[in-house]
Amino acid sequence: MQDESPPNADDSNQEVKPVFTITSIEMDHLKQTCNLTSLALEYCNIDCNRLGLSHFPSTLKKLSLRGTKCFNQRVDKTFLFRISDFLPHLEVSGLSFKYSKTFIHWPYILCT
């Protein structure tokens, strides 16, 4: 069986593209059925008009958005605007995501 995980952007000159879109319905289901403290949403699309930090479980301590592409984002604020209000227990975030054609990478952000 072939490895289906996306290649690391550092390993090649090819653009790594998201492989699925996470919806507010899926996030709300996770929020209601699981008491998550860690969540890795890697190589996915986030439609900022339909999914925001309020849909994420407030119990999260660790969050990875590696390779995530945010689209339909408002001009006046980022997807992470007021992250501490929505995810008050967040300690570590692994962020590497795209806004349009700009690739932003923060290996880990410690939130206190």
Give the helix/strand class.
Answer: mainly beta
The helix-strand sequence is EHEEEHEE
Number of helices: 2
Give the uncertain stretches in residue-range form. Answer: 1-5, 100-112
The amount of beta strand, in percent, is 25-35%
Radius of gyration: 14 Å
Descriptive key words:
112 residues, mainly beta, six-stranded mixed beta sheet, 2 helices, 6 strands, disordered N terminus
Describe the structure.
The protein is mainly β and 112 residues long. It has a domain of 75 residues. The protein is 12% helix and 32% strand. The protein contains two helices and six strands; from the N terminus they run βαβββαββ. Strands 1, 2, 3, 4, 5 and 6 form a six-stranded mixed beta sheet that branches. Strand 5 and strand 6 form a beta hairpin. The longest helix is centred in the first third of the chain and has 10 residues. It is globular and about 35 Å long. The N terminus and C terminus are likely disordered.
SSE diagram, text form:
Layout: E1 20-21, H1 24-33, E2 38-40, E3 44-47, E4 62-71, H2 83-86, E5 92-99, E6 102-110
Short description:
The protein is mainly beta and 112 residues long. The chain is built from 2 helices and 6 strands, in the order βαβββαββ.
